[in-house]
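Memo to structure team: turn this sequence into structure tokens by end of day. - J.P.
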Amino acid sequence: MSYHVYLIFVSFEASMLKQFEFSFSQMDIYTYMKFEDQVFCHQIAVLLLISVDKNRVVLNSCKDYRPEARGYINASLVTTSSSENVSQFIATQGPLPHTYEDFWEMVLQYHCPVIVMLTRLVDNYKMVKCGDYFQAEDGPREFGDKCIVTKWIRTTDTSLELHLLEVNHKESEEAPMSVLHIQYPEWPDHGVPKDTIAVREILKILYHVPPGLGPIVVHCSAGIGRTGTYCTIHNTIQRILAGDMSALDLVNTITMFRSQRIGMVQTQDQYCFCYKAIIEELEDLISEFNTQRS
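Reply from structure team:
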């Protein structure tokens, strides 16, 4: 990556802001998925956040422990590229007690190596933003026919909480799947963090995860605002490093994500945060490259 690419990206920031304002005012005029009955409604936190049909995650009905779910989960496969150098994401709402089992079925079925959680369990107003689907420090936890075990827990200086989990079906004779769970609890709902350091630390951790291992699960509470913001940052950096200069057009990236999941990147502040995080990460990468050359 050259310094020239960095300068081009920085120069795009002012003009792209006006484009985003128009895009935001026209956002998400897409065809919503229609259901013939209401059997799934208890799984959908907000009706307007239903996954776009063609991109929604479909659970294997033959392995679905809860027949009433009929393979449905509020989750979407999102990406901008079929390149092996660019990660695919599963953007989803924060699991709730009645969807814990579906969530872990999805992780197993799609071989997801990492879960990025961008919310607290309960916010400062005592509102539940996500259920506790992952903490298992006191021994194995079971969700229907799934079992999770915590191997280790670490906390970073930037308030990231890392859990290495092992996940499997209870009766399976196969080796359990290792899943890295990264929680960033300090990202406020509908807002942005005070700086980009922790978000970029997540990205630096995931540089070491080959995109071909499986999609990265990303969720906040509803699974669109903070989730879309992180996916945009991660995707843009990966594509720039792979030489894809179309990644410089952030509005196009967000538009593509919104065509796959309604509402990805909710606010102008989140859009500006994408730019800030990407620019600062590019500065870091250029600095590292120059240091290695000297």
